[in-house]
Design a protein that fits this description.
The structure is a single chain. With 822 residues, this protein is mainly beta. Helix content is 9%, strand content 52%. The protein has a 22-stranded antiparallel β-barrel. Strands 2, 3, 5, 6 and 7 form a five-stranded antiparallel sheet that branches. It is globular, with a radius of gyration of 28 Å. The protein starts with a helix and ends with a strand. Residues 1-13 and 15-35 have low confidence and may be disordered.
Length: 822
């Protein structure tokens, strides 16, 4: 019966894909609109709010030289007819706007290629964003908070990992356990580390249940990082409770292939090599990048290596139809020394991970108003953690660390020996492979230039298991279905709004609906002729959902009961339901103010977010408080994972950008976060621990107490980026600053007592990271560069007990052959 169902599912899936392809790529769309061999290039030039720009000077560039010039008409339209087929660029200049130069575009025989242009008011670059609406839309027309780190930013920063760039985004806090390669978590607006939807070229990258380890994601081959602050499950379904983080790989853009090779090295035995090639051949564009990074790090048993490949390949058989294939693969390995600051002895554990993300996207502009897209994706994540033998000093069947003394930033101190390894079977291995495959189709129809409607559907198949040495394997397979509809409109090129709702039919928790509404209103339009530029008011409301992890589902009340002899009868008698979705609800208000002839932009956002229905382990003694019947409680031996917790997060985000001079720019951000646990039935919350040395102070060892702050969320954080760039050289100074935050020592002394745990409040010290990078073009195609991290050599701990890297230094050279001559 199972095999028959599988065959039916496979046949239905193939038929569904074939039907969608027929709908999205009608034969009529493949026909050319012209019969002769001449080519044409046309478009409309608009300002950031979509208003046409008349009398703009448009220059056609061919092979780097000006070929033809024209001016836009009253409706902002320009056109170049009777062109020889080939690849062209255009340069657009207009009074009051920053100059614009396009990427290469192909003018095909017998067709009119369209190249719309949006000009920026002032020198600050206008960004296009995708995560807010599912389509590329100018950020100026979006009411939701979105931050973008583009390729030029990444080049100036010269960061090795995406997590280091994310530190500079307001509302984002990055915590890495130890040195490079240590597990890295991202907390956005106080949300948990597994509340971020991560997409690599549109391919979902999260494990089942939302976890994503950012320590494996290098900046190699990355073109842009986009962060949507807040929930957006209407478009992205599960995992998008606190943010959506989009990573985009570079495209090939130049008719002449561009090949780059770079090599650099530094202290701690660091060596990094990277090679890439990209270009355009006819209707085909390609980009391929491979990077290998190795370092010993600064602590015993903490060596790290990362081998990453990124590829992006596109094909446009016609002007209206395109096909794009992307691949991202990383293989990492790192020694896990554990919390050396509180144990004094390193573990001999190590972890390995291999991730592969594949995406195939087909797009078709069926008519001038109707656009369709189909995307097939596959994510394969294999994580393993191996402890070959116990580390530490043998003591009554367990193993102790060295005698140590340590203090928290709150002034409380402890001394003694903690249990480092518990007795058991060694070697000890934990494995967690996950495979997620999906089919997504969406369509967009423009009823008028001011009103459009978007709808979509996604089918996701998930499978995976978790297994530890000596325990049974927990398997899970899920088929989830998502759909959404969203309307987007504008009024008078001052008001921009979008509203919609998403629907998910999940294999575990069933049905859930997630609405979202955002609004942008310009009190003042962008203007470069006065000190006060644009004034934009923003409002955004959204909800998010999260499906349970494999572990949470396997340990839930419903699943535990299902495995008992009397369980099914109890489930039916007391209507026990499967574990539910974790949820979030967010409101934010913002204002953007342009200053100094649009040379500067100040943005302030106030947010209020609730995270509720969160999953946690509830002991059997507390289950009656959640309404669980006595007969069910009696059948459960210890307790179960249940939707029981909640907390509230609110605060303010400030972002400031400014072009001080022609070659000097400044970016600064500040975040105030006030979050508090409002409900918890965990063992810690019900029976807090106490250190005999500090009587009367309740301590949460594994989870925060009710009324306290969630762990590792600093109430104050800030960032600073200062860039000076000339034609042949540039310098960049950037900093990340955080205040003290709550955490736990989670230690047990040799007598299984609490003498080594410290009060949670402000346990983690605040710190400041300052990094510096620079580059110099020796000649065309040869660039020298250097990067220095933690130039103050601050010995900080982003997670208690895990020392981070002190001062690091790298220097290298980059060779570039071919490509476009500027």
């Amino acid at each position: 019966m199972h095999r028959s169902v599988s065959r039916i599912t496979a046949v239905s899936f193939k038929a569904f894909v074939f039907t969608l392809l027929l709908l999205v790529f009608p034969v009529a769309a493949m026909a050319s609109g012209k019969s002769h061999d001449d080519a044409a290039l046309r478009g409309i030039v608009t300002d950031p709010l979509g208003a046409p720009v008349a009398r703009a000077e448009v220059t056609l560039l061919s092979k780097g030289k000006a070929a033809i010039q024209t001016k836009t008409g009253p409706t902002g339209e320009y056109r170049f007819d009777q062109l020889a087929p080939g690849r062209y660029r255009i340069r657009v200049e207009a009074a009051g706007f920053a100059p614009f130069e396009s990427a290469w575009t192909e003018a095909r025989p017998g067709a009119a290629s369209k190249l719309p242009v949006e000009l920026s008011v002032g020198p600050l670059r206008e960004q296009a964003v995708v995560s807010a609406t599912g389509w590329s839309v100018p950020a100026s027309q979006v009411g939701a908070p979105v931050s973008v780190i583009n390729h030029s930013d990444l080049t100036a920063l010269n960061k090795l990992d995406v997590l280091d760039a994310l530190r500079l985004v307001p509302g984002v806090n990055v915590v890495q356990e130890g040195e490079r390669g240590g597990e890295a978590s991202v907390f956005v607006r106080g949300g948990n580390y597994d509340f971020n939807k991560v997409l690599i070229d549109g391919v979902p990258a999260n494990e089942i249940g939302g976890v994503y380890d950012f320590s494996n994601l290098a900046t190699s081959g990355v073109d842009e990082i986009e962060v949507f602050q807040g929930p957006n499950s209407i478009l992205y379904g599960s995992d998008a409770l606190a943010s959506v983080i989009q990573i985009t790989t570079r495209h090939g853009t130049t008719p002449v292939p561009e090949f780059t090779y770079s090599v650099d090295g530094g202290n701690f035995g660091t060596l990094r090599q990277e090679a890439s090639i990209g270009g355009v051949i006819g209707h085909f564009d390609y980009f391929s990048d491979f990077m290998r990074f190795d370092t010993r790090n600064g602590l015993p048993n903490s060596s790290f290596h990362n081998a990453t490949y990124a590829g992006n390949f596109g094909w446009e058989p016609t002007q209206r139809t395109s096909l794009r294939f992307t691949i991202h693969h990383d293989a990492t390995g790192v020694g896990s020394a554990n919390a050396l600051a509180v144990y004094g002895i390193p573990d001999d554990s190590f972890q390995r991970q291999q991730d592969t993300y594949l995406g195939l996207t087909a797009q078709n502009q069926t008519t001038n108003r109707w656009h369709n897209e189909v995307r097939l994706t596959s994510s394969s994540i294999h994580y393993s953690f191996d402890t070959p033998s116990p580390a530490g000093i043998p003591f009554e069947g367990n193993y102790l660390g060295l005698p140590v003394s340590f203090c928290g930033a709150n002034g409380y101190c402890a001394s003694g020996q903690a249990i480092l390894s518990y007795g058991g079977v060694y070697p000890s291995l934990y494995e967690s492979p996950t495979v997620v495959r999906s089919l997504r189709a969406q369509t967009n129809y423009d009823f008028t230039p001011q009103l459009s409607l978007t709808g979509g559907f996604q089918y996701t198949h998930e499978s995976g298991f978790t297994q530890s040495s000596g325990s049974a394997r927990t398997n899970d397979t899920r088929d989830n279905y998502d759909s959404f509809v969203e309307a987007r409109g504008s009024l008078g090129q001052r008001v921009f709004a979008n509203a919609g709702v998403g629907f998910e039919q999940n294999a575990v928790f069933g049905f859930a609906a997630t609405p979202r509404v955002s609004l942008a209103y310009y009190l003042r339009r962008p203007a470069s002729a006065s000190f006060w530029g644009r004034t934009k008011a923003r409002f955004n409301f959204g909800e998010g959902i999260q499906e349970p992890s494999i572990f949470d589902q396997g340990s839930s009340l419903y699943t535990v009961l299902s495995g008992l002899a009397a369980g099914p009868a109890l489930i039916q008698q007391y209507h026990v339901l499967p574990i539910g979705a974790e949820r979030s609800r967010d409101f934010d208000l913002g204002i953007e103010q342009g200053l100094w002839n649009e040379r500067a932009l100040l943005s302030v956002t106030l947010f209020h977010e609730q995270f509720y229905n969160l999953i946690d382990f509830v002991p059997d003694s507390a289950l009656p408080q959640l309404g669980v019947p006595g007969a069910v409680v009696a059948a459960i031996p210890f307790g179960a994972e249940i939707n029981s917790d909640s907390y509230r997060s609110q605060g303010a985000e400030t972002d400031f950008q400014m072009n001080l001079f022609r070659n000097l720019s400044l970016k600064a951000g500040y975040t105030y976060l006030d979050d508090v646990v409002t409900q918890s039935f965990s063992t810690d919350a019900l029976s807090p621990s106490f250190n005999p040395a500090y009587p009367g102070i309740p301590i949460g060892v594994f989870a925060p107490l009710v009324g306290a702050r969630p762990f590792r969320r600093p109430p104050y954080s800030a960032s600073l980026v200062l860039t000076y760039a000339r034609q042949r050289f540039g310098l960049n100074l950037n900093g990340y600053f955080v205040s003290r935050s709550d955490d736990s020592t989670t230690l047990t002394d040799l007598n299984f007592g609490n003498t080594l745990i410290l009060p949670n409040r402000n346990l983690l010290a605040g710190y400041q990271l300052l990094d510096f990078s620079g580059w110099y073009d020796v000649r065309r195609g040869v660039t020298l560069f250097t990067s220095m991290g933690n130039i103050l050599s601050e010995h900080y701990q982003a997670a208690f007990g895990y020392p981070a890297l002190p001062f690091t230094f790298r220097a290298g050279v980059r060779f570039t052959l071919g490509g476009e001559k500027r």
